[in-house]
């Protein structure tokens, strides 16, 4: 599978509290639209005039900036959908790792949920390969605030399209529904993969 240019199937059926209408728009239109835009940008980069490159404005600069926006839009949406469809019950080695890095699982949940209210775009529990620890981050747009060498594990979409149809402006209710639908087996597999990558590349 090509990472950015092929649509990834949903790993779940119905969700609790998050309607099929929301998913149809979110996955069926928005996410798939980003996948299409990725290929469009790649095609334009093949013929862009390199001699016109300029830091104030140029087609090359604009295409490269939007390339990061679209690539992260695809990656983060896939990471978000990948971990939904579960019963919300925490399990696996990931739980102990969270306790280790956040003193308790409860502390991490409170911190993650608070970041959901503080973020304008994304909340991300990532494995930081630089130190081998788990850290919560936020991103106000797809290509903002990224940490080089950190890989997403738990990803929460806080853009309005993810919750407004079902919850209006009640972000707290949406975040609670997100946690109720988490697939911790999928999350634990993702964590194990990140941890192995860290150990293999030390």
Automatic annotation (TrEMBL):
What's a single GO MF annotation on this record? metal ion binding
Protein name as annotated:
superoxide dismutase
Enumerate the UniProt keywords alphabetically: Metal-binding, Oxidoreductase
Q: Which residues cross the membrane?
A: none
Entry keyword Coiled coil: no
**EC top class named in words:** oxidoreductase
Q: Which residues form the Manganese/iron superoxide dismutase C-terminal domain?
A: 90-189
Any idea of its EC number?
1.15.1.1
Cited Pfam families:
Sod_Fe_C (PF02777)
State the source organism's domain of life. Answer: Bacteria
Q: Supply the InterPro entries for this chain.
A: Fe/Mn_Superoxide_Dismutase, Mn/Fe_SOD, Mn/Fe_SOD_C, Mn/Fe_SOD_N_sf, SOD_C_sf
The residues that hold Mn(2+) are 26, 77, 157, 161
Task: Spell out the family assignment given in the record's similarity comment.
Answer: Belongs to the iron/manganese superoxide dismutase family.
